[in-house]
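Notes from hallway chat w/ T.B., transcribed later so I don't forget. T.B. wanted the structure written out for a chain they're using in a teaching module, and asked if we could keep both sequence and structure tokens in one place. Agreed to drop them here.
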Amino acid sequence: MDTLEHLTNFASENEFKAIELVSFPPFDAYVLEQITDEIKGKIKKFNASYHLPAWEINIGALNHSIREVSVDETKKLIDLSGNLGIKKVSMHPGSFASFPELYTLLNRQVNLIAQKSVFDIFEYCKNKNIDLTIENLPFGEPLFQKPEDFELFTKKGIGMLLDTAHAVTANVDPMEFIKKFGNRISEIHLVDGFKGQPDIHYALGTGDVNYVAVLDELQRIKYKGPIILEMKSENDVVASLNLLKKKAYL
């Protein structure tokens, strides 16, 4: 709770209207359920979303039992989000970096498994009146990095979450996502990174992301969703915020 209070104070001081929450192990659904009221009180003045975890969870796992447990835990966290008054959750379509060669070899099978899990979770979200967005994966993940990998999901009504650094580190131009999906993009993680390098969450203007082109195109299509500055430190967030103000995007 101290960490959450620090986050919300920082967000208020810097006049953020939207925040995205995420939990790491050991803060699973069971733990978070014990402090639901406290969390709700801290986030009530923000447009809050929740990033469903991919750590120790793989909804695209080849192992049936692991996949079932992962989907079940994901649904528990969706329930938690609903109890917190959160109306939007985001997720990765799976976590494959631990065995990239194996998952690449079984590409078709893994895609079908991940699709089944995502659509199952999507239906669960709809029944809870919660919007689901799905995020492109970064360097190190062998699958779900290109715009065409997400077309089946967005056609069903799932929102596209574009992470600009994930795209660049996977050697994909973020503009390809915007041109392909347009207003089907419902959330942006605006963050910098380097081509073909691990995703480290750098401040804007320090890597290979052409954030000016991205923001100009988002303005052109009249994008209305949240833009999350997802950086590794508060200093990087503030530096990015100041850069956006200097460039007259804020």
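Follow-up for T.B.: The first strand starts at residue 18 and ends at 22. Might be a good example for the class.
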